[in-house]
Write a structure and sequence with these properties.
By secondary structure, the chain is α+β, with helices and mostly antiparallel strands. Helix content is about 15%, strand content about 40%. It is globular, with a radius of gyration of 20 Å.
Length: about 290
Amino acid sequence: MIVSDGATLWAYSPAENKVFVGTPAEAQTLMAENEMLAGKFGQFSEGHPANPADSQYAAPQNAEEAVAKLLEYFNASKSGSEALAGETASQLKLEPIPEQMPAEYLAVGGLLNLWIGQASHLPLAVSYTGGSLGEFSATVLELEVNAGVDEARFTFEIPDGAEIVTFADLQPQSLTLEQAAASSEFAFLTPAATPPGATLVDILDVRGATVQRYTLPEGGSFSVAQGLLSENAAEARTPSSESQPVEVRGTSGNMLVSADGAQVLLTWTEGDLFYSIAGDLTPEQALSIAESLQ
């Protein structure tokens, strides 16, 4: 349940009995930084513009622009339909286009699905699952278009006993190597071998997952991510139809390579941990980095 009065936004998860609270701007920023349909997928990239509104990362202003922006980064395919909010909705499976995605998105991974009403042409549900950002889903239960709404409906009373989490608490936090090793709930691994000229520029704590960001000469970059698997990760981490199985660190993984071979996404799991390496690398470099983790 998401409610906003224009000044405050509340997002309530009954299953977790949590209420996420902040301003609409904070919520939008968090969505952008998590790179979930916010239209600013380059926000973490080196050298992004100071004013995204004047760039290719500007947020879409209408439905047509939103769809066009989405298709710049994802291949969309229909994977079914179901009844939602009184109409039939088409389920769209969104697969990232590796060469279009920044390394940080590929590093956190996850699967994205949208349900679009066949009559209203409006989004009626969205789900994100299987990535290091955790899981998210929202479904429209009732849909009324252009109906008068009492202002009282735009307030939210936090249920007794609910945990309150601010959007600021969810922002990725920069860490030092020592902080990352001390704060991780798992054995924090770093690569002993990286491509020539690679420089570690940041370590981010993204909701419990750790993402190491490296730059490469001539403007390239890559990320190494690791974290605990979610409860439903086994079902959620379905390999892309374009990925190839590989052997990595004594287990099976999946490699997704861009059409021009300039970018890769390597993912695998070890016990209750997931790992991913993504960015401007060759498959051989990604595997070498993975094998050197210690």
